[in-house]
Structure formats: C-alpha cells, structure tokens
C-alpha cells in the first residue's frame, strides 16, 4: 500500500496537475520484506498486458529504471488487479461498470480481458495534463491504453478532455473526431483498434434546495451574525482550502502582502478569514505547506495586525453548515487553487 500511494500521490498526482515536481525529494519506498512479491507483480503484469493491450510493439523495459519506478508500478498494477478480481466476482451480464478516479487508470484493461462483454466507463475527478507534461511519465502509453479499454472516458472540463485527446494522438498516433452514434447523433470519440471510445466533459453541480435549507437554519443564521459582529466595519474575505501546495494558500498570502504594500490605505479595512483543512495524507507536502502558511500569516499580521485570521482544523470540524455560515458572512469568497479538477471543500457536506 505504501508503494501504491507513492505512485498515485508521488508520481501521478503532480503530473496530472501539470506540475513536474511538487515534492522536493522522491517518495520513499520501503525495500524490505516483499521485493519478491513486487517482482512477481511486475512479471504477471507484463505477461497479461501484452495480450490485451493489442499492441504490436514488444513489451520492453519501459517502466523507468526497473528499480524504484518498477516497485511503484508493480504496486499500482497489483491494486488494480485486486479491484478487477472483486468486480468479476460481483459482475452480472448487462451490468455497467463505472470507474472513478486516476487511482484505477489501468483497471479497464484488466477487466476487458476477463469480461470482454462488459460496458465500462471511467471518470476523472482530477485535471488531465498537456501532452508535453504527460509524456514525461515512463508508463505514459500503458496508462493511456488502460483508459482506452473503457467505452467512455469522462472529465469535468473540456480542457482536460482536449488534453487527453491530444495525448492519444501525439503519443499513440490515434485519430479522434465526431462519430455517429446509435441514436442518430454524433459523439466525440477516439478511434482505436476498430472501436470508438467516447470522450465526454460533464460538469459537477450542487443541490440548491439543500444549500437553501442549510442557509435558513437558525444555527447558521446565528453563526453568520456572530462572524459579522466580530468583524464589523471590515470587508470580509473568506477562503477554505486544504493544506497542500496545489491549493494555492501561500500564493494567496503573497498576493495579499503585495497588495497592502502597494495600497497601504487599505490596511485595517479588510480581513481574510483563511480556514486550512489538515491534509496529513499529503506527507511532506502538508508539513511544508503548513509551515510556510503559518510563517506568512505571522509576517503579515506583524506588519498589519489583524489582517489575516487563520484557523486550521480537520475536515470533520468544517462541515457544510460551518462552511455556509462563513461564506454567507463574507463579502468575497476566494478560491485560488493553482489547478484543480473537482474542489470538494467549499460546498460538499
């Protein structure tokens, strides 16, 4: 599991967000105990993949240097196989298999070999990078072919879908376009091995009636009045972000500092209420981001007292009602994520 997380969070996560390096040092890998299992995983994958990838090119040493990269890749493929085995046990003919997240990018390939009649969709909740970034991955072709064994690939934004299409064309030599469907319309799809893989962009939304119920609740109204009374006479900026580098809190604070340096007449007239959601699972990224944010908040408040009110808490302590109260009380909501697929923090319960 440590190696699996190392591949997902240490390799895929930054690349998918168009960042070549988020971490200052490679993700640590524990080399003790299960080296033989990791090697077995890689050998099993190589044997399996050559059959169902429908690739005429022989499978060579394409997974990095065969050391750290090979171990991470072996763990990643092993977890995808665990999901495959469980799905096969539960699958009935006619079922639709809907895969969510970049953690299971190659799962469609494993599934189509065992249950070729299955209808499979995979949806990405992260961005997808440009081909110039994605091609830096040693396993780029395997990941793309894994996704293309699904019948439909979905993204939140057309920008991400366009990057995926471009990667398939530039890295795999595949064509894409608008192809007729069974209902008489046309779908954007990739032509691969005699199949048309649909590519869609589907936006997420919120439930307005739930939001309105929360906003009208007595405790929410009381919290709103309490926040406004505490910060009376000031313009209130509110932000709720996870404590990791890609969420952009340090950049937000830098912008705030420069604004006050250039426009000192605004000092004391506004306040930024910044809520940081602890992200212990991000490891060094969380630790370094947290230290940087605290240092910058102290620096700003030393020069302009009361400008930033910073609070760190667990996600369980900042549920929908607390978030709605803060955002309702604010004059400006600030979302400064560097790059994001679906930001769950502001509105999701």
Strand content: 15-25%
What is the average per-residue confidence, as pLDDT, rounded to a whole number? 85
**Tally of structural domains:** 2
CATH architecture of the largest domain, by name, is 3-Layer(aba) Sandwich
Shape: elongated
The CATH superfamily of the largest domain is Glycogen Phosphorylase B
CATH C-level name of the largest domain: Alpha Beta
Write down the CATH topology of the largest domain. Answer: Rossmann fold
* Low-confidence segments: 22-33, 48-63
Report the sheet with the most strands, covering strand number, pairing sense and barrel closure: 6 strands, mixed
Calculate the terminal CA-CA distance, rounded to whole Å. 28 Å
- Strands of the widest sheet, in order across it, are 1-2-3-6-5-4
Tell me the number of helical segments per DSSP (H or I, 4 or more residues long): 12
Helix content: 40-55%
């Amino acid at each position: 599991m440590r190696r699996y997380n190392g591949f997902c969070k240490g390799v895929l996560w930054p690349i998918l967000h168009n960042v070549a390096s988020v971490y200052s040092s490679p993700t640590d890998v524990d080399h003790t105990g299960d080296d033989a299992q990791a090697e077995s995983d890689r050998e099993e994958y190589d044997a399996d993949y050559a059959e169902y990838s429908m690739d005429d090119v022989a499978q060579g040493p394409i997974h990095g240097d065969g050391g750290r990269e090979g171990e991470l890749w072996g763990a990643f493929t092993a977890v995808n196989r665990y999901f495959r085995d469980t799905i096969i046990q539960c699958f009935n003919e006619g079922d639709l298999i809907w895969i969510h997240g970049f953690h299971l990018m190659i799962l469609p390939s494993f599934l189509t070999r065992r249950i070729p009649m299955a209808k499979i969709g995979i949806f990405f909740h992260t961005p997808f990078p440009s081909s110039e970034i994605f091609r830096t991955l040693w396993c780029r072709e395997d990941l793309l072919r894994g996704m293309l064994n699904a019948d439909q690939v979905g993204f939140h934004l057309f920008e991400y879908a366009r990057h995926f299409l471009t990667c398939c064309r530039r890295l795999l030599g595949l064509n894409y376009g608008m192809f007729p469907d069974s209902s008489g319309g046309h779908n954007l799809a990739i032509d691969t091995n005699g199949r048309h893989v649909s590519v869609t962009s589907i936006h997420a939304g919120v439930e307005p009636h739930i939001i309105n119920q929360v906003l009208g609740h007595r405790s929410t109204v009381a919290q709103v009045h309490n926040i406004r009374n505490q910060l009376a006479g000031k313009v209130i900026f509110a932000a709720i972000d996870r404590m990791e580098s890609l969420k952009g809190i340090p950049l937000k604070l830098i912008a705030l500092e420069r604004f006050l340096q250039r426009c000192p007449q605004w000092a004391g007239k506004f306040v930024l209420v910044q809520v940081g959601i602890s992200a212990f699972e991000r490891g060094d990224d969380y630790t370094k981001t947290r230290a940087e944010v605290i240092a910058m908040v102290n620096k700003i408040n030393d020069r302009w007292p009361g400008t930033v009110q910073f609070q760190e808490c667990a996600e369980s302590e900042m549920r929908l009602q607390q978030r709605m109260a803060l955002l309702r009380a604010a004059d400006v909501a600030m979302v400064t994520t560097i790059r994001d697929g679906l930001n769950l923090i502001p509105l999701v319960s």
